[in-house]
Amino acid sequence: MIAGRVGGKFFSQTYKVGMYSGILDKTAANNIRETGVTLDGVKADVAFHSDGTYDVTNIRENTSNISAQDWARNEYNGPTAFSIFDATFIKLREVTLGYNFPISNNKLIKNVGVNVYGRNLWNIYTKSKYIDPEFTSSGGNVQGIEGGSIPTPVTYGFNVNLKF
User: Fold this and answer.
1) CB–CB of 37/68 below 8 Å?
2) With a threshold of 0.70, does the pTM exceed it?
3) Distance separating alpha carbons of residues 21 and 38, to the nearest angstrom
């Protein structure tokens, strides 16, 4: 069985705290914890005038390096664009394999069925790398907020069915 949802957005408290505390892999990429990061953008000199206009001169590429802590903690400032994710997902929800063994020479048992199954096996597609968008609803009127979700459990099972 394959299941999914298309569209929607959610705010992830787990992502926000993971960035703030430096536990996400993103906070260690390219040696950022040791060397800091230079963000994309530009610098310029801006002169503001009393009539509300302004002049921009000396536009140049940003070369200022900031610490990893300052960069990651910037994403902690509430529900910002950094911590809002697309809620679209497609999952392999369940796979079941089975076989029935007919029994012809037994008067009590006519058939034995054996099945193996697995549930929540694979997130085929999700735009949110760190959080399962399926677990973003809260009780009451609060929706689209994820906070402290545990990973989705993968379960396996085995069934034996007897037909009399």
Assistant:
1) yes
2) no
3) 20
